[in-house]
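In this supplementary section we document a worked example of the pipeline. Step one takes a protein sequence of length 232 as its only input; no multiple sequence alignment statistics are reported here. Step two produces a three-dimensional model, which step three serialises into structure tokens for compact storage. The input and output of this example are shown verbatim.
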Amino acid sequence: MIKKIILLNASPRKDKNTAQMLAFVAQTVLMTFCVLVIMSCSTWNSSGYEMLPTLERNKIVECQDGIGNLYNDGQVYLVTTEQLQEYLDTAGRVVIYEYLFYCKSEHCINPLVVEQDCKSQGARLLLMMENYKGIIGLPALDSPVLAANPAPFGKTITKTCTPQFFNQLTSTTYKTRGYGRYYLFDNGKFKGCFNDYKDALSTDSRLRRESDKTLSKSLSPQTTDKSIFAGA
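The serialised model returned by step three reads:
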């Protein structure tokens, strides 16, 4: 009887301990979830600069000269939209590749392949890093490697500003131009954004043919209506 009373008295205490344990587990899970969300958002907005070793950080420098005077010397040049636009205005046909090192999409092509195809069709390639991860492993391109200068957007080098950069450069937004990684320019004029660089090059060729056809028509001699001379 005494043993039974002890057990009855112990039961509510056990239930209370179990409830406290479950509450603790639930609180821990919730806190962990919140931390993961915060970390995810932080990583999404990060440029990756803070995770680079000193050797790679030293390769990221501000562009102090015209982009046309740069070459691929192993550095990443931070450029403003004004500097890039000045280059595009006189560079003819240019494809800007918004490059993300760890992208696994079928449209994220080796920059060297893209550059070779651009050259074969008379266009130039500019590689614009979306963030700084993977700059050591970049292939040896002929063109310089660029990145958006965050200062004009009120950001530090640790925060990404690539979306704002392309919004300003193209005078569009992602919603209006699409989410492609390849930007086509012709003599400084934005022609479109594409998922596949081959679509950009084929569109470029089509626009060129149409332009040449229009120019040919404007330069062709005008035919004269001989009927006005009838009976002269």
